[in-house]
Amino acid sequence: MTEKAERKRRKKLSTSKTVVLVFAAVIVLGTVLLLLPVSSRNGVCCGLKTALFTSTSATCVTGLVLGDTWSLWSGFGQFVIIALIEIGGLGFMSLASVIIILTRRKAGFQHRMLVAESISSEGSGDVMRIQRNLLIGSLSVETLGALVLFLKFLPLYGASRALKLGVFHSVSAFCNAGFDIMGFKVPGSSMALMADDPVVLLTLSLLIISGGIGFIVWDEIIRLKPKKWSVYTKLVLITTAVLILIGWIVFCLLEWNNPQTLGSFSTRSKLLNSFFQSVTLRTAGFASFDQNGLTQAGKAVSDFLMFIGGSSGSTAGGIKTVTFVVLFLFIRSRMRGRAGTDVFKHTISDEQVMNALTLFITMVTLAFAGAAFMCADSGVNFSDALFEVVSALGTVGLSTGITAALGTASQTMLIIFMFFGRIGIITISIGFLKGNYTERKYRYSGTNLLIG
Known about the structure:
Elements: H1 3-35, H2 48-59, H3 69-72, H4 75-90, H5 93-103, H6 109-118, H7 127-157, H8 159-174, H9 198-213, H10 215-223, H11 231-255, H12 267-280, H13 296-308, H14 321-335, E1 341-343, E2 346-348, H15 350-378, H16 382-393, H17 408-434
Antiparallel strand pairs: 1-2
Helix pairs in contact: 1-2, 1-4, 1-17, 2-4, 2-17, 4-8, 5-7, 7-8, 7-9, 8-9, 9-12, 10-11, 11-12, 11-13, 13-16, 14-15, 15-16, 15-17, 16-17
């Protein structure tokens, strides 16, 4: 390895460690704040496990909880949670960028590279303009969503509570976090009380989709004409629309007459909640009906959508939409007997295919191993365990209701998986983006194996 390549390798590792350490520091700070008696609704320290689990879930924009957010946390505790969600959703480098923008200081190269990697940009040249637009655009969308929700909640709950509900749920939806504070009506109900309200559910859906598409995609949509959009942007938009549509149709077919989910709803509400379910699985985590009531087929489809998640450089988790498309196109090409993988008259490199395959296999292995461990440790059935584990890895936050009842070992595993689902994917992606693979000085003789 040349000296230059070695320096690049060290810089890559340094960047990856920085991402991990900063997110870990935010989680630790959030845990300390949530441990304060003032953070708990009853004024008593909630305990280390609850504080750490909640701080990790909020910072990693997941939404899994050990208790109802409204019932467990005071106004101060809820403020800490929404602050962690904003930091975790928009990326920790946004804070540094705000300081640079406000003080008009020049950003150094290392900072530009960190920002670029945190939002999945391929270079550092124009990254500060993208980051500035990211902050302005994100805050604008969150403000607009909060305004719509405030106006909807105003006649129901009064100005003060309506404002709090509007701001909290707008930020939570845009950051794909799934935390809610509707527990003041019915603890643990999430958005079930709003199941017949198209304004609330559609507003949340639009916020979720906006946050899950990715900042680089929005930058191209705003600046460029459709003909000039990159292949990546086209793939993100098409895949997002197709997955939402397929999920919508499938949930209508599977759950239409299920009395535990959509069966008791009107036709309009069935269509609305099927759509919302398809959107929230990408990886928001709000629930407008009991997820434990889903049919086994419905849970399987939910696992599939949660596993894919949103798009790179967004507030969403999962293996990401384009990763899934690359694998789909690769398999389709091989089944047709073709050597290369093409899309929109462009060739996808073998290296990118292998990167996608590596990420996919890693996530699948963790999901099944984690579900098996949870079954052994907590005695839950495999479908519920897989649902919980995929929800953590995909930073979704939906649950069949088993989170609080799990054993300490299983809950600890969920903390690790939520962290990996948010931070591990970023660091692996940095490795893909900046990796310089070492050429071996020797090569063994080839062999032929029977495949299939």
